[in-house]
Amino acid sequence: MGDAFTIGRLARDTGTKVPTIRFYEEIGLLGTPIRTASGHRRYGSGDVRRLAFIRSARKLGFSTEEIRSLLGLTEHPEQSCGAASDIARRHLGEVERHIEQLIKLRDELRAISTVCPGSNVSDCGVIAAIAHSPA
Amino acid sequence: MGDAFTIGRLARDTGTKVPTIRFYEEIGLLGTPIRTASGHRRYGSGDVRRLAFIRSARKLGFSTEEIRSLLGLTEHPEQSCGAASDIARRHLGEVERHIEQLIKLRDELRAISTVCPGSNVSDCGVIAAIAHSPA
DNA sequence: CCTACAATCTCCAGTCACTATAGATTCAAG
DNA sequence: CTTGAATCTATAGTGACTGGAGATTGTAGG
């Protein structure tokens, strides 16, 4: 365990921007790290794993609150599973609804942008189509 | 044209919240309306159409900046068409990319939430799956 | 005319998840 | 020892609203 990371190293290793790490500390997703005598943050490999988890979950679309729950669950491993998969399934439902809406939207936009495919006709239907879209 | 709307009526007619209307005025999507002697905003049917257009475009996912462009184009109808359909097609491309990403995400979430379908097993793969997702 | 109460007014703070800037210090390499 | 990169704190900005406080005004019933 001779592992000691600066904030910049932690940022590089996890694909996170430095201010984002400080932000996560501020909102309590990351704990307050130890500091060097001059005040610089020092991290260990546990922090790398935790931050990597946070970033993965964010990319999967979990909110910081959901991530807080997931991280909390890892501290009570005996009952984690049901609650964790609840969070994941609820989130899956939201993503599926979101996809449905976007597909409707895409079909509308396709219709709108074929009304006038870039010609120089002086009155076309794009604006009208947006105005009268049932969205 | 004996049409005169209060802000509340305009809100009801367009499915917009009152503060949102004032916000649109503040950022210049809606012009500054005439006021009654006591300072209350008065709107006409032109404002209803303009606000309805803004709301439709927002529901279609256009940003307020894009809407500003679209509204600007309506004031130069001779060259509107090409530029308007450019905006729509660019936006369509973004929506299509967004859908692709969400489908990948959905497949991952499905995999994750079937790892442990809510049983009471004490160590399951949900947390690990999130941590090791390639997202 | 008076009393309620609903609607409107302005101004400001909060949301979410960061991102960026300024100005001061500190670290690491040559 | 100097230079430049990295870090520090603190604060403000983003986008697109939403909500609340506290004051004024509009309107309907008695």
Computed Rg of chain A: 23 Å
Assembly status = homodimer
Helicity of chain A, in percent?
A: 55-70%
Structural class of chain A: mainly alpha
Principal-axis shape of chain A: elongated
Measured between the Cα atoms of the first and last residue of chain A, the distance is: 56 Å
Poorly predicted runs of chain A are none
The mean pLDDT of chain A is 82
Widest sheet: strand ordering of chain A: 1-2
Second rung of CATH, namely the architecture of the largest domain in chain A? Orthogonal Bundle
Domain HTH merR-type (chains A, B): 4-73
GO molecular function (chains A, B): DNA binding; DNA-binding transcription factor activity
Protein name (chains A, B): DNA-binding transcriptional MerR regulator
Organism (chains A, B): Hephaestia caeni
What do these coordinates show?
Chains A, B: Pfam families: MerR, MerR-DNA-bind. Chains A, B: It comes from Hephaestia caeni. 2 copies of one chain form a homodimer. The first copy, chain A, folds into 2 domains: 62 residues, Multidrug-efflux Transporter Regulator, Chain: A, Domain 2, CATH 1.10.1660.10; 56 residues. Helices cover 63% and strands 3% of the residues of chain A. Chain A contains 6 helices and 2 strands. In chain A, strand 1 and strand 2 form a beta hairpin. In chain A, helix 4 runs antiparallel to helix 5. The longest helix of chain A has 36 residues. In chain A, 29% of the residues are buried. Chains A and B meet through helix 3, helix 4, helix 5 and helix 6 of A and helix 3, helix 5 and helix 6 of B. Chain B binds a DNA duplex (30 and 30 nucleotides) through helix 2.
